[in-house]
Structures are given as C-alpha cells and as structure tokens.
Specification:
mainly alpha; two-stranded antiparallel ribbon; 5% strand; 177 residues
Length: 177
C-alpha cells in the first residue's frame, strides 16, 4: 500500500507524490524531528502535533498520506504557519535531530522526499485553507486530551524535546513496532 501526498483534493496527478508506508513514516519523522526542535509558538507546536499523528502505527497502512489543505491551518496565521513548515523541511534536510532515531534515515532517499513535500507546501495558498479542518482535528481529542496535547505540549523523556501525541512519541512507536 502507498500513501499519496497532494496540495488539495483536486490536485493534478502529476503534482502528487506517493510513498510506501515505511518511507512515509521516515520522511514525516524527519519533519517532526526538525519541527519539534524549531517550534516555539502554540500554533507551530499544534502543526507539528498534527504531523505526529500521521504515522502508520496510528493511522494504519496506506492511510498516512494527506492533502496539505487538511492540515490545521488558520487563515489569519497562514503565511507564518506555511513559512514555519517550510523552515522545518529545510531544517530536516540538514538532518536536524536525525541522530535521535534508533535507525538512521537514508539521506539519499529522505532528502528528495522532503523536497517533493516542500514543493507541495509551497503551492499551498490561503484560498485552500478550511478552518473546519482545525476544528475537526481538535474534536478528535477528549477534553482532557486537548488540555494535555494542545496546551501542555508534552515531549518524550527518551527522545528529549520530541513532541508527542496522545499515542506517544513517533520514535518510541517505531521502536516498539
């Protein structure tokens, strides 16, 4: 099974890219690692929290791909949110925090995936932002989860600084299989 990444539902096929399950998890690990290191504001942390949930062990095989427009963007903060995600991609390409993974990422594979994803994010415009996506995502969490995940922004004790979801740390999930 493969995962498809695209800007929005009506993206032309040639503007999408597909990765297998392990590849999807690895390229997203690279972004989440860099994003955990860079995130400072609540919105930046929320965007990384959303990406932490895009994992085969959470979503299931073939369910990790997504539309960039599905991310929990806000119209008012879109330009700075997009700039942050693009900074995360660039930082991931420098291997920021890659050494925290149990198994090394293969640069020759991951860098082109990050570049492909960066091109998609670059194509994302405020006109595609649907703030209902943010509200829908927030509705996934019971009230206690919202408080824990979206205000406290917990990090993994083992992988210092790595933002974790209600399901735990991406890297710990991979270690457990």
């Amino acid at each position: 099974m493969a995962n498809t990444f695209m800007v929005h539902r009506n993206s032309p096929v040639e503007e999408c890219f597909r990765l297998g399950n392990a590849a999807s998890d690895e390229f997203l690990d690279a972004i989440v690692l860099a994003g955990s290191a860079l995130a400072e504001t609540e919105r930046e942390k929320q965007l990384i929290m959303w990406l932490t949930l895009q994992h085969t062990n959470i979503c299931g095989m073939g369910n990790v791909g997504f539309e960039i427009a599905e991310m929990p963007w806000t119209k008012a903060g879109f330009e700075s949110e997009k700039a942050f995600i693009l900074r995360c991609i660039e930082a991931a390409k420098t291997k920021l925090w890659w050494d925290r993974r149990r198994y090394p990422l293969i640069e020759e594979l991951v860098i082109p995936w990050l570049e492909s994803f960066g091109k998609l994010v670059d194509q994302m415009t405020v006109e595609y932002v649907n703030e209902d996506e943010l509200n829908e995502w927030l509705s996934w969490f019971p009230e206690i989860g919202k408080e824990y995940i979206l205000r406290d922004f917990p990090t993994c004790e083992k992988h210092k600084g790595m933002l974790v979801s209600l399901y735990g740390c991406r890297l710990c999930l991979e270690e457990k299989g």
